[in-house]
Amino acid sequence: MKKLAIGLLSLITIMSCKEEMKQKETIKVTYPETKKVDTVNTYFGTEVKDPYRWLEDDRSAETEAWVKAENKVTQGYLANIPYREQLKDRLSKLWNYEKIGAPFIEGDYTYFYKNDGLQNQYVIYRYKTGDDPKTAEVFLDPNTFKEDGTISLGGTSFSKNGKILAYAISEGGSDWRKILVMDVETKEIIEDTLVDIKFSGMSWYKNEGFYYSSYDKPKGSELSAKTDQHKVYYHKLGTSQSEDQLIYGGTEAEKHRYIYGNVTRDDRFLIISPRVSTSGNKLLIKDLTKPNSDFVTILDHTDSDTYIIENEDDQLFLVTNLEAPNQRLVTVNASNPTPEHWKDVIPETKNVLSASKAGGYFFAEYMVDAVSKVLQYEYSGKLVREVELPGVGSAGGFGAKKEEKELYYSFTNYVTPGSIYKYDIENGTSELYRKPEIDFNPENYESKQVFYTSKDGTKVPMIITHKKGLELNGKNPTILYGYGGFNVSLTPSFSIANAVWMEQGGIYAVPNLRGGGEYGKAWHDAGTQQKKQNVFDDFIAAAEYLITNKYTSSDYLAIRGGSNGGLLVGATMTQRPDLMKVALPAVGVLDMLRYHTFTAGAGWAYDYGTAEDSKDMFEYLKGYSPVHNVKEGVQYPATMVTTGDHDDRVVPAHSFKFAAELQEKQSGDNPVLIRIETDAGHGAGTPVSKTIEQYADIYGFTLFNMGFNVLPEKIESFKN
């Protein structure tokens, strides 16, 4: 692994030089002046000042000028970090390997996604099914959409015969999409572009048209105005978008913030799943073989997450957590589909179920302490076998059409780059299909799971990954990464950026906090609304475990998270500013009193509650809301807030206001910077070039503020 020696050295080596570098180089920061206004909101008789409310106006010249001024300060600071370019070079070199996705068949062709290495966006290739894959040609190249890669592919859907493709594009990282329709043979766009579409799939009915979802275009800013009335439409090929039929939604009597429409593979049923929040959905079906048939209600409440995974004629198969917090798979006849008639096919177990289908079988993937275990079942519920996985980690992708005999699944963990395996559905054998050629040797690293105790006695798992032979001396630079919300599970996966961090002797630790989905609905609910403090306590306890066990110390600890994880970082650093040296909140939900007034934020109320719900809920939110808990005269850790100017999921005003509060009130010399990416959104579709630059800045900022001023030129420990 000689290439690992080029340009950088292990921070383990740097540690030995630490005593010689006590006089940490400092960079003087002069922050832009941020004006304050007299805006006040009153909640249940309590007045709350909002001096930076004006930064919520993403269309104003004042906000634009503030963004430019802050970015100038940030880039000026980062330019003084001596090894920033070295980090960028190493990230680029490690990133530059061929990445190929699993093949899939549509119509007469086999398709796959591929990135040559540093392409900003993945390219779709294809070849005639049965031909040599080496004959593959470029089918759709999103890198041609815009030179800088800031227009990305936001989803694809082929017609049932595979002859027509509908694909969505995102401009500047926005959640708003446009849909284009292409003839796959000629590669020509055959219809006018559909516009103003958000949070939508594209589900085909036969080869005639497709269902999609959207909101009415908001008045005011498209990037921040509230959107809370989702609707499902049907677009018939050959007609204009203005003629699209409203299928469901749009009544004031019954508002739903998210509604999705899907057609079963046999074109028999249209499935509608209305949601008020990100958790819980109603469920209805419509028989498409009967003209003018009415919707039949399966669930008329949002007390569960339930979806139809498969049907055989009238027989429906559903995955649900209704009366089964860890999920089960049930069956019922469409003529009488309500819960009292459900029968278990795969009963609930002590582990959380995630189900898929392929080749006429169900595949039940379980999380066992956040690690994958996969079982194959017949539709009758008879167990066929346990799928033998290549190791301990995360496996996914057990899906294929019913007539297919093979499926492709991925396997990864924190030290194993994602590989693809081909699985014979009938005989249960796996073979390696594609392994990436990457300049990273997993044998030099170790990853282990520990269990630590949170404040209230709850046992929480955490996976700690680092270079083998690490000395537990309390001086290892460590990133503690967390999320803890929205039923999201953090399972082991490889990251190029994390590999570069660990090359430098860094530790990467990921706890499975409450609020996530690792242990089912009960684990999720234990981190919601007025139990949200459990999530922060779990994160704080993870940091304390790492410090107590000498993995690191407060001088070498950075905490990081994005979106709901950005809230996690913001709350943790304001509650325990002494605990870490660096804080890295990304695209965070940071103003908990107003989050629900922007875009689709009101849909997050299941996890958070809102300040209008009750006096108790208001006081609870205000008690941890990062924007409202920055105190005068406190020394907060060195902080770099990151966001995107086109983030219309968690609007950048959250980050703007938090940074302004910190810059005004920070005591001591620790810098508070905000890095605002232009033509970028919440994260999806971000060009590789921008991603590399961002990680170089984050790692440079982190290491520099931990006291590392020099990166010597060679990694002696990696020489062969």
UniProtKB/TrEMBL annotation:
Catalysis performed (reactions): Hydrolysis of Pro-|-Xaa >> Ala-|-Xaa in oligopeptides
Gene3D superfamilies the UniProt entry points to: alpha/beta hydrolase, Prolyl oligopeptidase, N-terminal domain
Matching Pfam families: Peptidase_S9 (PF00326), Peptidase_S9_N (PF02897)
SUPFAM superfamilies, alphabetized: alpha/beta-Hydrolases, Peptidase/esterase 'gauge' domain
Domain Peptidase S9 prolyl oligopeptidase catalytic: start-end pairs: 492-703
Record domain Peptidase S9A N-terminal: where: 32-435
This protein's UniProt keywords: Hydrolase, Protease, Serine protease
UniProt EC number: 3.4.21.26
PANTHER family: PROLYL ENDOPEPTIDASE (PTHR42881:SF2)
Homology family: Belongs to the peptidase S9A family.
Protein name in the entry: prolyl oligopeptidase
